[in-house]
Amino acid sequence: MDINLAALHTQPPQIIEAFPRHAACLLYAQQSRLLVTTGMEPVVRIWNSDTWSLAGEISGHTNAVTTALLTQDESRLITTSSDRSTRIWSFPDGAPIAWLVGHKNTVTDAALSPDETRLATASYDGRVLLYSFPGGELLAELNGRTRHVTTIAYSPNGAFLASSGLGREVLLWNMPKGELVQRLGNHDTVSGLVGWDADSAVISTYDYAGTVRRFRAANGEMISATALELPGISSLCTSPDGALLAATAPHTLAFFDAATLERRETISLKVKGIYGLAWRPDGTAIACSAADGRVRIWQLSQA
After folding, report:
1. CA dist., res. 243 & res. 151, Å (int)
2. Which partner for 264 in 138, 172, 214, 255 could form a disulfide, CB atoms 3.0-4.6 Å apart?
3. What is the pLDDT of residues 113-155, one digit of tens each?
4. What CATH number is given to the structural domain containing 145?
């Protein structure tokens, strides 16, 4: 099927009343056809993506759940929280497996190495911690900034870990040693990660002003900087086929050509805070979460 962006304007979205306030991270589970949602509550809610009925809940955190991550076989779910902990659960039943408490402030993100032997976590305490996976043994502490780290991502070949957050730089660390090898600068206020090219040679970043930059990982050279004319970006997500880039900003869900970064479509929403994004793995739907606690899902398939 082809992605049909015209459906954004012709069909109203499916709406899930996920949380009383602030829905945050979204994650599709392909094998079980489930949608995982987190928010300002200390619970993970799981929805059947065919009927949009509640399929289950996972409880154990004591404060807001900030992000969620699945292993490749979807047997393990990793969650981070403002209770300063990271938890590992079996999925989808939610049986607890491990509880990691090395951070001193909100844990904001998690990333698994491609071979799934290492788990990295980021925090407002300015650190990235590296653990063995699934055992949870603390292996290293990465200190490259004193302010909030909000997003981390391994390169596809596992040679680098990128970290971004409050500040003008994205940091690159070599793996598994955890040595800081590049500082990618020139960002405005807050930096974020779009993702890596398939060969791990180039990383794309964005900042609060709405500029997407591409850097060479080997030497930190900036290849390009393109203004999306979308200030206040909170998340970016590439479609499964790599053709489109979806972005959220205040009151806005926008779509861009991933190669040229030309804007393709824009949806205006009444709610200001729009946070998480998730494409259905086959590209036939996209979901976004918002400050009103709702998750909105648009069907984009075309025969």
Report:
1. 23
2. 255
3. 999 999 999 999 999 999 999 999 999 999 976 579 999 999 9
4. 2.130.10.10
